[in-house]
Amino acid sequence: MNWFFIALIGPILYSLANHTDKYLISRYLKGGAVGSLIIFSAIFGIVAIPVVLFVHPDVFNVTLPRGVALAFNGMFVVVAILCYFYALHKDEVSNVVPFYQTIPIFGFILGYFILGETISVTQGIAAFVIIMGALVLSFELGDTVRFKKEVVVLMLIASVLYAVNGVIFKFIAVDDGFWPSLFWSLTGQVILGVIFLLFIRPYRQQFLAMIKENKLVALGLNSLSEILFTIAEAVTAFAILLAPVALVLLVNSFQPFFVFIIGILLSLFFPKISQESLLRKHLLQKALGIALIVVGGYFVNM
């Protein structure tokens, strides 16, 4: 199979995971009670840690300071996911997910100061286009135009944390290797999940309530989302082996487009699963914002 079609599987699976998360939050976690969801997502790393140990047993060769740094770096991902969950509770998937395309912008800034990386003029212009697309999606078009401050702030925090995670991971993994760095990052995620479970009372209550109420469907959907995300990452990594990294990242930038299309299809044919606004003004707003972000994402990864 051509590398392009393999790489295309990644953003499609990511988009399906996004809609699964939204359905889970809307259907089973009323009032934004995402504590059970974030605990489950954080401790899901327990499944991956034994695999990493099997593939690369020498994970303990990492120095203590670097191991601690990687563990905290993994915690950043959990906080980023938490912000994403809260944003999903407040807005539609096709308005939330495109903000992830701002990650490269923050990555450029951090990479410049920490890794000494530079960007081209084209990438700079592309970053500006992404920002314009994000701004288009930042306003709610109702009887009055309202700036969706909470959603924007939550997703920008998530994007910054993902960018920080990527830069720190690369900074350490270059010397210590991919698998040891991944092991300690996953360990940090699990630790923060346990901290949430033990010390954040509302999250603990929400998690235990889900277990006591035997919400197996909710747990199953959460597992499905995590599996889709994991497979998407694996497929993307495999595609990188077949083609230049930059080209694979270009394909990944189409994720907001797939989120948009899947959202429309679900709203039309399966409204009980997902119901996004199909008003003309909202569709035009999303189409314009996502188009700018996809075009910007295409050139920012060149």
| Mean model confidence by pLDDT | 84
The helical percent reads: over 70%
Care to count the β-strands? Answer: 2
| Helical run tally | 14
Shape: globular
Separation of the first and last Cα atoms: 23 Å
Taken as a percent bin, the fraction of beta residues is under 5%
SSE string, helices as H and strands as E: HHHHHHHEEHHHHHHH
Q: Order of strands in the sheet with the most strands?
A: 1-2
Compute the CA-based radius of gyration: 19 Å
Low-confidence stretches: none
Quick overview:
The chain has 302 residues and is an all-alpha fold. Helix content is 79%, strand content 2%. Strands 1-2 form a two-stranded antiparallel sheet.
What does this structure look like?
The chain has 302 residues and is mainly alpha-helical. Helix content is 79%, strand content 2%. It has 14 helices and two strands; from the N terminus they run H-H-H-H-H-H-H-E-E-H-H-H-H-H-H-H. A two-stranded antiparallel ribbon has the order 1-2. Helix 4 (64-90) runs antiparallel to helix 8 and helix 9 crosses helix 10 (201-212). The longest helix is centred in the middle third of the chain and has 28 residues, at 149-176.
